[in-house]
Amino acid sequence: MLRLPGVFSFLALLWAAGLAHADSIATFAFTGTLETPLANQTSVTGQFTVDLTTRAVNAFSFVTPIGTIDAGQYEAPAGFAGQQGSAGDSLVVLDLNSRGAGPGAYLRLAFVGFPDDRFATTFVGGLLYTGPIANYPFGPYLYASVACNAGEAACSSTGYSRFLSGSATPLLAPVPEPTTLALLSCGFVLLGWAWPRQRGPRGASA
Asked: 89: buried, middle or exposed (CB in 10 Å: 19+, 13-18, 0-12)?
């Protein structure tokens, strides 16, 4: 039979695992200004949600001068990837590319301030990095920017512009995911099973 101290220790582990999983999912609000107007506009706003442990981009939606950028027509093939700036700055980059075989469109955001690869668990938002990005898979030196080539169906207008400035701000803590809730529920069920049952008084006659 399980002893209560052992059960409580197990519950504590489940609780910690659940909280750690929930805390790894973070949503950020972004606002930025483009260097060159596109369709007479320079503002980019939106939100993105990432798993800071796996670096997966769970959700995103941005309003830009080239149109709305969301999961309907765009994807994040590299996730929330670590890169370097031209001066050796450690960066984290979010690259959203249009789906399909069209001419192409994208939104690229980069943030600075990470001493090493630990950004996966320490990213809390920050200022947009507007310098050149080195060692990037799609080219030797690229920038935080937005672009749409002529003929791309995902865009409402075409053009290219680097960002002049921008920032990502964390939103309220997210609601725990189903995995977290399942872990906690399992723990409470186990506690109920292990809790001593109340026994009737000894010597009671039938």
From this structure: middle
Which residue reads 């996966």 in tokens? 120
In the chain, where the domains are located: 25-175
* Proportion of the chain in helix, strand, coil states, percent, rounded to 5: 20, 40, 40
pLDDT digits (tens, 9 = 90+) for 101-131: 778 999 999 987 554 555 556 778 889 999 8
pLDDT digit string, tens, across residues 141-154:
689 999 999 999 99
Strand runs labelled E in the chain: 25-38, 41-51, 57-64, 67-70, 74-75, 80-85, 90-98, 105-112, 126-127, 133-134, 145-148, 159-170
